[in-house]
Amino acid sequence: MKNFIFISLLLIISNTLTLWFSSEISLSFGQPEVAIVAEIQLETNCELMNKAFIVVDLKTDKSVGFNSSKAYLGTVTGNPLQVQLNPKYNDMTSNFEIHNAEKKMKIELDCNSSNKLNNALDSLKNTFKN
Description:
The chain is of the alpha+beta class.
């Protein structure tokens, strides 16, 4: 009889603790990766065409160009995405903000607020003048 009471008490305590800490337990197992096709809309006030930019999945190194201000990239929810200057244009580098991948995204680039970006774009324009 003592064993039955002990086992019953042990089960009640373990079930209570599991219920109490269920959110922490689920976080420890992580979220499953969900494959998506991210629709990325680029809004920019830059003087360059949208074709001068690409979006890159920094985790998988997949990249795709913008077509009429939109790009579609096969990725996983939450992967880091970054808009970059297209490497076709004089191997310029850029340091734009990183965004977590979502099914529908809008990324805004403000060329007027960044001196570093303005210098890079001026350099790129000078490349086409020569």
